Amino acid sequence: MSEQVSTRSAQIYERALKSMPGGVSRNTVLRKPHPLYVVKGEGARITDVEGVERIDFANNMASLIHGHAHPEVVAAVTEQLQKGTAFAEGTEAEVEFAELILSRNDNFEKIRFVNSGTEAIMSCLKASRAFTGRPKVAKVEGAYHGQYDYAEVSQNPTPVNWGDVDRPISVPVAKGTPPNALADVIVIPFNDIERALALLDQHKGEIACVLMDLMPHRVGLKPADPEFVRAIREWTRADGALLVLDEVITFRSCFGGAEDWYDLDPDLTALGKFIGGGFPVGAITGRADVMSVMDPLVPVVQFPHSGTFSANPVTMTAGLITMKLFDQGAIDHVNGLATRMREGIEAAIRETGITACVTGGGSLLRLHMRAEPPRNYREAFWNDEQRSHLTGLIDHLLNEGFTVVNTCTAVMSTAHTEADVDSFVAAMRRGFEKIAAE
Ligand SMILES: Cc1ncc(COP(=O)(O)O)c(C=O)c1O
Question: What is the pTM for the complete model shown?
């Protein structure tokens, strides 16, 4: 099978290399020796150009909660496509979708839609600056929040450049990042109250917001300690800074998002990914007074905000159906599948005797080649041996008919069944046996 995979896909990739840097428009699809090219997705399964079908546990990087081409979403979007895809006017679909998202959490008083998680986070940071009149933001080391200059600082530092744990360095992602952007981002360690507060204290009165993901994927996909979350919340309140939650991924965890887990009341929440029903989306939601910095009906708007494709009726329609279908029963289903998978993998780890562990929460899980769950980004960082085992495992899973996110993270959708989960666990166990035999 792998021979065949390389043939057709290799040809396409060869062409792709001539037109795009690296042959791709987003680095996450890259894998060696070439990306997988898909022709079709239906429910939990995708089919590649070789005609090979796989069970998809990547779900476009956690952006598809009902799998591929859900019939109700397809029907509604098809109807909308025939009526037009984007207008320089509003549509009622936008208003209805806004009402629906606001109804899911009391923290959500007002909302605006954008086209990506990156844009949602950027808008949250700009709104926080406009509201507080302060220039700086704080974020957790290693956390991914998209590509805005400030949000991406220290997204992927390495032992060579991350600096002392008491004073993490603001490491740029892109060459040429303005030094002022780096200076205006305070990097704090995850789940380390003492160090995080000491760092924040050095910038009292200057920080517009602390940006936080309650289960940051790249930091290890471990839910934040409730005490850490509480300490950060109290610090922001005492200081007059805002708390901005990145729920672009975690919103799938509970009816009102992961903030419900913690009974937390952030000032702003960024949403994205699955709320668009498979179409590009982002949203900024939260306190009405903070959101009002975007209000153009006042004499001087503090944060003018627009976007050509924001709230286009195709995304709004797909999102509306998707979120209506993502009711408590659906949430229990996907979360139950993840628990079943986690328990199955943990049993396989014990029985094969390999050094590994599983983190995650809600409908997501991630495998680590270490005995204990990482507590922060530095512990989650792969050494060469871990990298080799994990990339080998991802290839093994692909050859066995499964896709996962390239960190060995599995994402459930309502289209998955317990049988899908069990066959995935069996394939993972065979991968562990190979590692144990090495
Ligand atoms: C937690 C989190 N925030 C923000 C983003 C950025 O979203 P987008 O890729 O839609 O710009 C991502 C994307 O993976 C994410 O995982």
Answer: 0.97
